[in-house]
Amino acid sequence: MELRACKNCKRLYNHFSGETLCPTCNSQLDEIYREVKSYIYDNPNTTIQEVAETFNITIQTLHRWIREERLEFAGSSLVGLPCQGCGTTIKSGRYCESCKKSMIEGFSAAYESDQPKVQKEQKTSNNRMRFIK
Hints:
- The chain contains 4 helices and 4 strands, in the order E-E-H-H-H-E-E-H.
- The protein has 133 residues and is mostly helical.
- The longest helix has 20 residues, at 23-42.
């Protein structure tokens, strides 16, 4: 735990991890997030610029919420961010479905190649069950 100055109001607070805002500013930002989410739900064809101006927040904050998948714009919306893998426009998250699928396949292949190979026992006629009298 360390003492830091809030990025927004410059007050000192005990910083644990994550956001560099004090608890007061963080709760205010959470309230704005709820209002933004409601606004986007009611106005699905709005732009990021309009949302930022309406709520007096930065476009970077909106981009962060979209990347974190906290916000998602409608499929018909003009709002989109580039996929960090291929550059395709996406509505939420960091990667498009195609990049996610290829990453999953790559991780699965890496996991399977890392597993030790177990040889199967060869079945012979001597491996039968025996009864003792």
